[in-house]
Amino acid sequence: MGTTNQLNQYWTDIYFHLHYPHKEKISHQVVRILQLVDKIDGVGVNDIASHIQVSQNTASEHVKRIIEKKLLTKERDSLDERKVVLRLTDLGRDVLHRNTSLDEEKLQHVIDGLEDSEKELVEKAFQLLSERAKSCSLS
Questions:
Q1: Contact predicate 86/74, CB 8 Å
Q2: What is the pTM of this model?
Q3: Which of 19, 28, 96, 116 maximizes the CB count within 10 A of its CB?
Q4: Residue 36 and residue 12 in one domain
């Protein structure tokens, strides 16, 4: 098994064992939209359509439903009043966290069992992967 396959296996094991219990019924596509709005400033409907590879009308319908669920809000861009940007609500931020992050109590329990040198190694490895991932395309 190559490095890429091993890393993917490790990541899926980590997520499987340490994720939050999913309380909300939320689609993967909604999670991807919430992630895009969270990670990229100034996201609009066109950006979402491009990111999830759907038409602008379909993206607009998704956004409308997500706004109805009170996970997103629309507001005018402060630099360009013609542009509408999307923002996460507090509820949207909470739902996104529970659907994409590791349960902090479970994670802390694992970290508490590591030696100081192991903690440092894990943190540096994740920091490096995070930094390099940010330089990749968002597709």
A1: yes
A2: 0.85
A3: 96
A4: no
